[in-house]
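Retro notes (design track)

What went well: tokenization of the new backbones is finally stable.
What didn't: we kept losing track of which sequence belonged to which structure.
Fix going forward: every design gets posted as structure first, then sequence, in one message. First example under the new rule, 501 residues:
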């Protein structure tokens, strides 16, 4: 499905729509409706189960979204969190340099100086995408943070956080004190990040307010033990810098163990890369041949990273690979910068008496982009019907409850729906239209199971208190005792967790 068709379908089903739609919308802002909000919650819980669930020493916190200026100064965002912007001197429209140069430099402009970008604009006689004039300005760095006047005097500066990660660094000392005082220590945040993107586009891909799920693992640089044997033979679809330099765009399958041979990738990093790949394949259900682990070069990496592989997934709606998450080795950049900025020593004393400033491994994940990815990959046409083949633990509604003949079976079906909802099953009761139409609505919403109450459910025979349970993907219907439903449904919607043993 093309991007606008997919968006139209999601909007029609109440998954999401533009913010302030009745006023014509606001660029880069979207609201989630009931299905979207539920899917997003499930996605966040699945992420937390997989990543925060890796260790008893990994925890979730819920920090403020506004950061004092001192924080973003120390973190480097005030100085470095910029995108090159070009403005048309004729129509005064501003563009991301990368967007204007898409045709001429498909690999992007990461790492290029404003002068080098200006040179490309000049050499190719690049025209303004809006008015067609050649009067494009020399690129200027544009800071992507939203600044705020903070407090009643308006003299204090603050910023909406540009990444959730910062809050984990700010909380490290407190987390150390309240925890086991041991490394590795994980601090996760799931929440909004804000960026004043120059050119918001592609619906959920370049938003101005979006949700990140980020885990910062603080570890001892001399020792970060991981159960590497569990992933050693896992084949990973990697696209390394050296192959990219030769023009390759498709990944090659390399065993995790063989990535260590190259020396510069440490065991802890490859282990987490494999764990992340498994999340995209096994938890989100993206086909392995759609995923690539894209290594960023020295020039392309974010300013704080020593090693960076982006997790990219090939999306039909956007006609190519798109970044949905990443594994960042940030070294001691963050604790060192915040140590200097705050004047607090953020090193810790370990059980063996050594004083270390922990390094950080960051597992980052764009919740909205992945939600779009789940629509792109799993919303399929099966003959006449549109089916959203979401894994059951991600489905916004786990169960549809129908009376076969509303007049005769509604009272029983409503009571059943109440009991199942009280047991924790997220469900929708539906008695409108034919059973076929009700199934079709549930299929399109991704609901994995439907139960129908019929005459047999109410009879005095052996099928009393049984219902038909229909599976979305196989369309098979089985007769099931009502008493079995809560346990069966709740176990199907529990997200997978990694083994800690
Ligand atoms: N803490 C690291 C960090 O923020 P990032 O690559 O800038 O790294 C992390 O962002 C994730 O957030 C990305 O992988 C992407 O999925 C998501 N993301 C970034 N900018 C976004 C935007 N404007 N709209 C939607 N998602 C975005």
């Amino acid at each position: 499905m093309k991007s606008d068709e997919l968006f139209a379908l999601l909007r029609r089903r109440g998954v999401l729509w533009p913010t302030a739609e009745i006023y014509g919308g606001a660029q880069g802002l979207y609201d989630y409706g009931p299905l979207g909000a539920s899917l997003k919650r499930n996605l966040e819980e699945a992420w937390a189960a997989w990543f925060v669930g890796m260790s008893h020493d990994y925890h979730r916190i819920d920090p403020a979204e506004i950061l004092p200026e001192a924080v973003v100064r120390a973190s480097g965002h005030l100085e470095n969190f910029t995108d090159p912007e070009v403005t048309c001197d004729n129509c005064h429209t501003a563009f991301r340099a990368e967007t204007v140069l898409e045709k001429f430099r498909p690999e992007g402009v990461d790492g290029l100086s404003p002068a080098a970008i200006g040179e490309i604009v000049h050499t190719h006689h690049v025209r303004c995408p809006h008015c067609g004039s050649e009067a494009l300005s020399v690129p200027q760095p544009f800071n992507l943070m939203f600044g705020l006047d903070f407090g009643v005097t308006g003299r204090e500066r603050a910023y909406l956080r540009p990444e959730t990660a910062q809050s984990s660094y700010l909380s490290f000392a407190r987390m150390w004190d309240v925890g086991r005082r041991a490394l590795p220590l994980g601090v996760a945040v799931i929440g909004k990040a804000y960026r004043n993107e120059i050119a918001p586009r592609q619906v959920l891909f370049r938003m101005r307010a979006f949700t990140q799920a980020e885990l910062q693992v603080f570890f001892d640089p001399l020792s970060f033990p991981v159960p590497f044997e569990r992933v050693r033979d896992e084949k990973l679809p990697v696209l390394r810098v050296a192959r990219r330099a030769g023009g390759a765009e498709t990944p090659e399958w390399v065993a995790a163990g063989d990535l260590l041979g190259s020396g510069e990738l440490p065991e802890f990093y490859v282990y987490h890369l494999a764990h992340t790949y498994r999340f995209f394949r096994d938890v989100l259900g993206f086909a392995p041949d759609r995923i690539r682990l894209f290594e960023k070069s020295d020039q392309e990496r974010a300013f704080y990273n020593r090693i960076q592989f982006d997790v990219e997934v090939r999306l039909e709606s956007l006609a190519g690979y798109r970044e949905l998450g990443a594994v960042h080795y940030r070294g001691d950049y963050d604790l060192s910068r915040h140590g200097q900025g705050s004047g607090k020593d953020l090193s810790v004393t370990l059980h063996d008496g050594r004083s270390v400033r922990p390094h950080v491994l960051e597992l980052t994940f764009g919740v909205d982009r992945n939600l779009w990815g789940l629509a792109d990959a799993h919303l399929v046409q099966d003959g006449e019907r549109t089916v959203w083949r979401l894994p059951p633990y991600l489905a916004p509604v786990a169960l549809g409850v129908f009376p076969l003949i509303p007049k005769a079976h509604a009272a029983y079906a409503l009571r059943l729906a109440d009991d199942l909802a009280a047991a924790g099953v997220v469900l929708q009761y539906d008695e409108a239209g034919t059973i076929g139409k009700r199934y079709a609505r549930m299929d399109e919403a991704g609901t994995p199971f439907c139960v129908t109450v019929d005459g047999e459910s109410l009879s005095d025979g052996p099928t009393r208190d049984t219902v038909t349970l229909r599976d979305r993907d196989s369309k098979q219907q089985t007769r099931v005792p009502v008493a079995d439903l809560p346990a069966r449904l709740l176990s199907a919607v529990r997200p997978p967790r990694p083994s800690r043993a």
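Added context from the reviewer: The pocket of glycyl-adenosine-5'-phosphate is lined by residues 163, 165, 195, 197, 205-207, 210, 212, 214, 323-326, 362, 364, 366, 368-369 (CB under 6 Å).
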